[in-house]
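anyone seen this seq b4? input:
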Amino acid sequence: MPNANIPRRITTQPEFLSLLDRMVADTAPRLFAIAQQYGTTFDGEIIAWGLKFRGRRPRCEIVSPHYPLRMSLEKPETALHLLSLNPDFTPHLIWHTPHRR
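predicted toks r here
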């Protein structure tokens, strides 16, 4: 009787690609944006994009498409604090939800 705890050996390319696909789905980072609101108006822009990685040492990477900005932080909320130093702008953390339109 085969031991259920021993994984079955992968013997074909499609099986291997399927395994890789599951690994990507299980470990994919979460995508988020940091949007900046101008004063009390309902106007603003996305000032940075980020990836939140899971694992033993969670971290996030943040980059800006408009400014020379790159951050490596433990959590995205820290970026909100760092980007809220100008009282004329309010940063917002927005988690990307795929297929939401």
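The beta strands are 30-38, 44-53, 59-63, 70-73, 89-95. The chain is about 20% helix and 35% strand. kinda curious what u guys think
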